[in-house]
C-alpha cells in the first residue's frame, strides 16, 4: 500500500522531498527517524509541528553536535557506560553484528546545542561490530543520534534509525511500521 510519494525536480534530492512528504502524513504520536541527509533543524521543527517526535542520525554535516558527542562519549566511557544501556546481537546472511546501545538525557556537553534543536531530550550512541564469516571485526562502527523523545536504550534498539533507513513508527502500536524510502512511503 502506497501512503505517499513526492516526485523531485530533475536536479533535486530528498532535501526538497522530505518536507513535502511530511506535509502529507498524519504523524500524531509517531517517532520519525531520518538519516543524515534529512538532518535539518527545519525538518525537526516540522516533525514536532505535526505532533510527532524526531530521532535523527548525527553525521559530520553537524560538526558542533559531532564534537559534543565525542566529548560526552569517548570510547572509554562508551565501553564502561553505567547508565541506560542495552546489547543486541543480530545474525543475518552470514554475518553477525553485536550492537551496544546507550541513551542519555541531554548532558552539559549538549546544553548549548539544545537551544538550536527544538525540544531535544535524548542523545544516543550505537556501537556495533560487523563480522562477516570468520574474520574478526577490526574497529567498531559508532553512530550518534539525537531525539525529541524520552527514549531508553532498550526501546531505541527497536527503532529502525540505527539501521539507516528512515521510518515512521506508531508509539502505541509497535507492530505498525511504515517504511519511508525512495522519496515515497510504503507499508
What would you note in describing this structure?
- With 187 residues, the protein is of the alpha+beta class.
- Helix content is 24%, strand content 34%.
- It contains 6 helices and 11 strands.
- The chain has helices at 14-24, 41-49, 63-72, 75-79, 111-114, 153-157, and strands at 2-5, 30-34, 53-58, 84-92, 95-105, 122-128, 131-132, 141-147, 166-170, 177-181, 184-186.
- Strands 1, 2, 3, 4, 5, 6, 7, 8, 9, 10 and 11 form an 11-stranded mixed sheet that branches.
- It is globular.
- The termini are close together.
- Residues 159-187 have low confidence and may be disordered.
Describe the structure in brief.
The protein is of the alpha+beta class and 187 residues long. It is built from six helices and eleven strands. The N and C termini lie close together (6 Å).
Total helical elements: 6
Helix and strand element order:
EHEHEHHEEHEEEHEEE
Shape: globular
Low-confidence stretches: 159-187
Termini, distance in Å? 6 Å
Structural class: alpha+beta
What share of the residues does DSSP label as strand, in percent? 25-35%
Chain-averaged pLDDT: 76
Please count the beta strands (DSSP E, at least 2 residues each): 11
Radius of gyration using CA atoms only: 17 Å
Largest sheet: 11 strands, mixed
Overall helicity: 10-25%
Keywords summarizing the entry:
6 helices, 11 strands, alpha+beta, 34% strand, 11-stranded mixed β-sheet, 187 residues, 24% helix
Amino acid at each position: 500500500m502506497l501512503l505517499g510519494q513526492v516526485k523531485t525536480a530533475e536536479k533535486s534530492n530528498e532535501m526538497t522531498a522530505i518536507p513535502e512528504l511530511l506535509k502529507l502524513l498524519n504523524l500524531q504520536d509517531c517517532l520519525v527517524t531520518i538519516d543524515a541527509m534529512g538532518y535539518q533543524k527545519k525538518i525537526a521543527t516540522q516533525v514536532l509541528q505535526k505532533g510527532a517526535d524526531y530521532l535523527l542520525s548525527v553525521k559530520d554535516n553537524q560538526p558542533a553536535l559531532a564534537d559534543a558527542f565525542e566529548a560526552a562519549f569517548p570510547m572509554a566511557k562508551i565501553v564502561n557506560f553505567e547508565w541506560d544501556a542495552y546489547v543486541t546481537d543480530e545474525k543475518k546472511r552470514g554475518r553477525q553484528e553485536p550492537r551496544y546501545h546507550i541513551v542519555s538525557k541531554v548532558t552539559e556537553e549538549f546544553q548549548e546545542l539544545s537551544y538550536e534543536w527544538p525540544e531535544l531530550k535524548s542523545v544516543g550512541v550505537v556501537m556495533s561490530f560487523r563480522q562477516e564469516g570468520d574474520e574478526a571485526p577490526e574497529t567498531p562502527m559508532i553512530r550518534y543520534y539525537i531525539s525529541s523523545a524520552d527514549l531508553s536504550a532498550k526501546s531505541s534498539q527497536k527503532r529502525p534509525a540505527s539501521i539507516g533507513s528512515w521510518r515512521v513508527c506508531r508509539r502505541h502500536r509497535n507492530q505498525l511500521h511504515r517504511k519511508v524510502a525512495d522519496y515515497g512511503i510504503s507499508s
